[in-house]
Amino acid sequence: MKSTNIKNKILRGISMIGLLGISYWLCRFSFLKIHGMKQWPNLLAILSIVIIVIATIFENRIIPVVTVVGYIGGFVLAMIFNTDGVDPGGGRTNNAWIIWGTVFIFSIMAGIIWGFISKKRHENTKG
C-alpha cells in the first residue's frame, strides 16, 4: 500500500513539473518576441521546480498546482497590464517582470494559506 502512495506522489510531482515545462517553453521561447525577457522566465522556472519538489516531498497537493498556475497566469497578466517607459538616463523600461513576479509570489502565498485552511478544516471534521 505504501509503494502505491509513493508512486502517486512522485507521479503528481512529475506531472506538475511537466506542466511547468510546457508553460516555461511557451513563455521563454514561443513568446520571446512579445516580452524579450530571457533571464526572468528561467529564474521563475527554477524557483517553481524547487517549490514543486519541496511541496511534493511534504505531500502538499495544492502548492504545486498554484505554482504552475501562478507561473503561466502571472505571465498572461504581465503581458496584458505591462507598460513601457523611459528611465531618467533615457533607457527603455518595462514593468512586465514586476507584474509576473508579484502574481507568481501571491499565488504561492494564496496556495499556502489555502492549504493551511483546508488542513485545519479537515482536522476539525475528524475530531
TrEMBL record:
Keywords: Membrane, Transmembrane, Transmembrane helix. The chain crosses the membrane at residues 12-34, 40-58, 65-82, 97-117. It comes from the Bacteria. This is Uncharacterized protein. It comes from Proteiniborus ethanoligenes. The lineage of its organism: Bacteria, Bacillati, Bacillota, Clostridia, Eubacteriales.
